[in-house]
Amino acid sequence: MPEKSNNDKSGERIAKVIARAGLASRREAEAWIAAGRVSVNGAMISSPALNVTTRDRIVVDGQPLPQQARTRLFRYHKPRGLVTTHADPEGRPTIFAKLPKRLPRVISVGRLDINSEGLLLLTNDGGLARALELPATGWLRRYRVRALGRVTQEALDGLKRGITIAGIHYGPIEATLDREQGANVWLTLGLREGKNREVRKVLEQLGLRVNRLIRIAYGPFELGDLDDGTVMEVETEELRKALGPELAAQANADFESPLEHEMPAAPTRHSGARPQGREPGIQRDGARPPLDSGPRAGARGRNDRKKKQRRDRTGGPRPKYPRPKK
Asked: What phi and psi, each to the nearest 5 degrees, are found at residue 89?
């Protein structure tokens, strides 16, 4: 006969424990339980209304639940053309198939659609992902946007009051007209929600068609000069400070457990041949100078040739990613 699960008040809800293990968000874990994918002490469960402790044996899809590891957060520069999901029914390439193999199992904090690029936060802690996704957390998400059409700053200022489209209300949006480029305009937007295709739908209401969307910041975390497709870990102390005690407690973040494994350092794109044992796609703080820091070390001494300005896909100058306003 299967052992009976310990369901006393000292334990935690089963879905929360699964989320803490980094397998899924709490909501996804509840769906897995309802689908019969989770067993506790040898007995399949169908309700998430169950408390478990470290003495209980939890199995998901026939595999024991991984041991709890330290809460970790990673900055990832998502390229266009990838979907933010573990498996796509249409067979499109996913970010998780492209991530470095030595990364722990992670889930995304929110999503960026297939045509969007820029900063995507990844974490091994489902509780942290849920806490950071909530609008109540109030973290500002900033975007650099190129759109076809014309708009005035006065029209953009009207978004500060929020806007309702097709019965859906979108909260206040900070929007700045940066410049015009041919038939396009470049904008910087800041919002505190994450509704589906919010930026595109709101700007479409103003007569603009978005053709490039780059997220440059999510709360205190910035895209900076992170290369396309590259991951950089946020150091534990930096993460602890950014969350603060209240949000860390809400997420039930764990900063004391051991790391699953260390992230390897990575060569910069100007450092020549790849060193042995290092994996592409992982970048550490200080691995390369800022974009505006002058000539690269590898470019110095080459007859003082001037580097050509990088250009975007339309032939215009490639935009810099401005730091969000504090």
From this structure: -65, -20
pLDDT tens digits, 4-43: 445 555 678 898 888 777 677 788 889 999 999 999 999 9
Cα–Cα dist 254/20, whole Å: 9
Catalytic center residues: 113
Q: Are residues 103 and 53 in the same domain?
A: no
Q: Tell whether 17 is covered by a domain.
A: yes
Structure tokens at 39: 């067993």
CB–CB of 15/45 below 8 Å?
no
* Residue 50 counted as domain residue: yes
Structure tokens at 124: 């091994």
Are 37 and 162 contained in the same domain? no
- Tally of domains within the chain: 2
Last residue of a domain, one of 26, 46, 64: 64
By C-alpha distance, which of 95, 46, 41 is closest to 64? 41
The structure tokens 């169950």 sit at 50
The pLDDT tens digits of the residues spanning 210-247 come to: 999 999 999 999 999 999 999 999 999 999 999 999 99
- DSSP H or E run through 63: strand 63-64
Q: Please write the tens of the pLDDT for every residue from 130-149.
A: 899 888 888 999 999 999 99
- For residue 52, give its domain range: 12-64
Q: Tell if the pTM clears 0.85, that is, is over it.
A: no
Q: From the centroid of its chain, how far is CA 222? A: 11
56 plus 154 within the same structural domain: no
